[in-house]
Design brief:
- Strands 1-5-6-4-2-3 form a six-stranded mixed sheet, with helices on one face.
- The chain starts with 16 loop residues before the first strand and ends with a helix.
- It is an alpha+beta fold and 359 residues long.
Length: 359
């Protein structure tokens, strides 16, 4: 359903977005190992329920601060413990400015919310995901062996994983940043979650999730691993992450989870009716374009390449049903607007988009 922000603000459509794609869980649910299959099946069933509830339930209106209310320049974080149940948000266990918890999962969630807020503020001048200081809420220990993390349009939710195929979903700060960036997209370009616009929606989250990790670690483009969800796969999985921006299609190749299906260029574009038209698969193409542009420019990836992606996402010209070609055109135009025609930034974007087949 729609979220009406306030008079004069556009209507937004929150979507239910998970970091682990359904095609990966589908494969795990067919495992010969009954425990693995059961954990994956329970996650799929819970995700389907949540996705349906998101479509039919009314989302509370978001209160936009008035001109008389100062917008804070620091995060307002609250972490809840769902207690392995599925009723949200759960019991409050850590508030903004409070002492660290004895629970490392709580502290990782708290730190990840802060890292995301800091990059958007320091890198792009954005105060929280809505630009107006929206409080950042998260619930941890969601469900039993829940193999996912998601943004539900209002807050972050983290499962603990089953300890076999997946570990605690707070272990990767880029996963936290990925899901919160769905909120940024919700409040800006509001990209439809289907087909190429949906793949762009997923790609925006991967791009800024990776940038949040790089910012937190002080890494330059050439030092980054360009992986999404590194450290998240369990000890029995053959793979390094959920996705690779540097080399889409190489993140995992496992007997239980299958092989990473992401294409790196339009030559491998996948046409499918599953996963909202392959939003988690075809996102590899714009992901790879960003990686190419960022490494071509060098330095801190959020400073130039990231700035251009942010300009495009928030500039007001990107349509909610934008395809890859529209994003390529607008991001290249943004390079001209910000840095000038014929500069290194313009050339890097032209080269990157041409390499993935969107010249």
């Amino acid at each position: 359903m729609d979220v009406s922000l306030s008079p004069g603000h556009p209507t937004r459509h929150p979507v239910f977005c998970t970091v682990v794609p359904p095609h990966l869980l589908d494969k795990a649910a067919r495992s010969d190992d009954a425990a693995r299959a059961d954990a994956a099946q329970r996650t799929l069933e819970q995700d389907a329920f949540l996705r349906t509830r998101r479509r039919i339930s009314t989302v509370r209106g978001v209160v936009v601060p008035t001109a008389d209310e100062p917008v804070p320049d620091h995060p307002l974080r609250t972490v809840y413990d769902a207690g392995h149940r599925t009723r949200l948000p759960g019991t409050k266990v850590r508030a903004e400015g409070s002492e660290p918890s004895a629970d490392a999962t709580v502290n990782r969630a708290y730190a990840g919310l802060g890292a995301t807020y800091e990059l958007f503020l320091k890198g792009f001048g954005r105060r929280s995901i809505d630009g107006s200081g929206l409080p950042l809420d998260a619930s941890v220990h969601y469900g039993e062996d829940y193999n996912n993390a998601f943004w539900d349009g209002q807050q972050m939710v983290f499962g603990d994983g089953d300890g076999d195929l997946f570990l605690d979903f707070t272990v990767s700060v880029d996963v936290i940043g990925h899901e919160l960036t769905h909120g940024v997209t919700q409040y800006t370009a509001n990209l439809d979650y289907h087909g190429q616009s949906g793949a762009l929606n997923e790609s925006m989250s991967d791009v800024f999730g990776s940038l949040i990790k790089q910012y937190a670690l002080g890494q330059s483009a050439d030092q980054a691993d360009w992986l999404i969800g590194a450290g998240l796969l369990g000890p029995n999985v053959t793979g390094v992450a959920l996705r690779s921006m540097k080399a889409p299609g190489t993140a995992y190749d496992d007997d239980e989870l299958g092989r990473d299906p992401q294409p790196a260029t339009m030559d491998g574009y996948v046409t499918t009716s599953r996963d909202n038209g392959g939003v988690h698969i075809n996102s590899g193409i714009p992901n790879h374009a960003f990686y190419l542009a960022a490494t071509e420019l060098g330095g801190k990836a959020w400073e130039r390449a990231g700035q251009l992606w942010y300009d495009t996402l928030t500039g007001g010209e990107l349509g909610s049903r934008a395809d890859f070609a529209e994003f390529a055109r607008l991001s290249t135009a943004a390079a001209v607007t910000r840095y000038g025609d014929g500069g290194a930034e313009h050339r890097a974007l032209q080269k990157a988009w041409a390499t993935v087949g969107l010249g």
